[in-house]
Structure formats: C-alpha cells, structure tokens
Amino acid sequence: MTERKPGPGGGVQSLQRAFELLEGLADTGGEASLSELATTTGLPMPTIHRLIRTLLTLGYVRQNSNRRYALGSRLIRLGEGASRQFGTWARPYLAELVEQVGETANLAVLERDEVVYVAQVPSTHSMRMFTEVGRRLLPHGTGVGKAMLSQVPPEEVRELLHRTGMPAYTPHTHTEPEELLEHLRGIAAQGFALDESEQELGVRCIAVPLADTPVPAAVSVSGPEGRLTKEAVDHLAPLVQRTAEQLSAHLAEADLEFGA
C-alpha cells in the first residue's frame, strides 16, 4: 500500500496540490496550458501531468480543442451547492439589516466573471426591489459588482473587463475601463459602492465588500431612489458596512473552527 505523504497541517499532499492546480486554472481565467500552470502554481511538470490526468478522468478539468486545459463542468454542481449554503447562513444577518434600513438586502459573490446573487431578504414595502437568487449579471453595472472589483488588483479588473465587455444596462452604466478603474479607487477609499440607476433606472443601491473571503463577495441594500435618497446614504452605509463586517467575521470563525 502506497503511503500518502502528509502536507502542511497534516493534510494529504496530492490532494492539496490538486486543489492548487484547480485554483491556478481559476486564477488564469479558467483556461491555461501546462506550462502556464507550472508558472502559476510552482508545481513540477511531472506532478501537473499526473494530477491533470486524474482531474480529466473525474470531470473536474477538460481539455479544449486548442489543447489548453479548462475547469470542468463537474465543478458547477459543487459551486452551486456551496453558494446555496453560503446564502442560507447569511439570511439572518440580511434580515437584521432589512429591519434596520427598511429596504431589500442582498448577498452576492463573483463567480466566473459574473455577479451571482446567493441570498436575498426582501423589504416589507409594497414597492420593493427583487432580484432572483441565482441571477447572474456582469459586475461593472451593479453595486455589489463594483464593491467586489474595488478589492481586485487593477490589472485583473482590466483582464476581466476585456473578457466580459462593458455593455450598458442603462444610460448611467460605466462603459469605459479606465473610467471604471478610477471609480473603483474611490469606492475602495470610502469603503462602499453606489449603484445609481446603473443597472435599473430609478433604483439606488449601497454595497460593501466582505473582507478576507475565499471568493469576492459583497452585501447590499437596494430600493427606489425616492426612498433610498442620496441624503439617506450617509446614515445607511455604516449599517451595511457593519453587516459586511459581521458576515466576514462569521466566515473567519468558521475557518478557524474547521482548522482547529
């Protein structure tokens, strides 16, 4: 029987390296050559060959017609399941935020270059914002998307925008990369993003990124501009920031408990 070599923290080294390889693929935009993976991960080429063969067999990696490797479709089910669980434990925090601000609260993550809404607690107002859980949007035109991009290095943002394009959802949507990057610097400085009729006319959104999460994530509140006024932003933004801090702390505690 072959002895498995323990990795850092007592884990199995081959398993750790397989995940490093998958994360390396994700970091390159989801597709890479073997040499690019070697550069990204620092793993020896023989190890990469061996792991790629296993991941191909299992369906977690696929080989494209250009002979480059990409993330496999079998990962989708895992990602969707993790997103659902993420949304489930976040709902109590979102419900508390709705009680405080009186508007709909959302939690979203950045997945495969898109914003994915994983949880929502609606406002009690008859006129309220509703975004279906699971809905996908491009990040440049949403408050949560801009909040998350404000935490991403500028060159990575440029690469993402090159892949997705910047279509206009409304006349107020940012459609120029360098203009958006300047806007993101302001968001990072103030600690929250505003969507002012950029995704949907007549709607304002306050969004705050979560800190130190495995994937970019953000929490937001959204409502009609008539209720969620510019004046209201000053006292509502700190409440959204507090919820983001609570969610980030919850995730950090969960990681510590798992690693204990």
TrEMBL record:
Keyword Transcription regulation attributed: yes
Gene3D superfamilies on file: 3.30.450.40, Winged helix-like DNA-binding domain superfamily/Winged helix DNA-binding domain
InterPro entries found in the cross-reference section: GAF-like_dom_sf (IPR029016), HTH_MetabolicPath_Reg (IPR050707), Tscrpt_reg_IclR_C (IPR014757), Tscrpt_reg_IclR_N (IPR005471), WH-like_DNA-bd_sf (IPR036388), WH_DNA-bd_sf (IPR036390)
SUPFAM superfamilies (UniProt xref): GAF domain-like, Winged helix' DNA-binding domain
Keyword set, alphabetical order: DNA-binding, Glycerol metabolism, Transcription, Transcription regulation
Domain IclR-ED intervals: 74-253
Keyword ATP-binding set for record: no
Domain HTH iclR-type: 12-73
The organism's place on the tree of life at top rank: Bacteria
Pfam families xrefs: HTH_IclR, IclR_C
GO biological process terms held by the UniProt record: glycerol metabolic process; negative regulation of DNA-templated transcription
Molecular-function GO term, any one: DNA binding
UniProt function note: May be an activator protein for the gylABX operon.
Descriptive protein name: Glycerol operon regulatory protein
UniProt source species: Haloechinothrix aidingensis
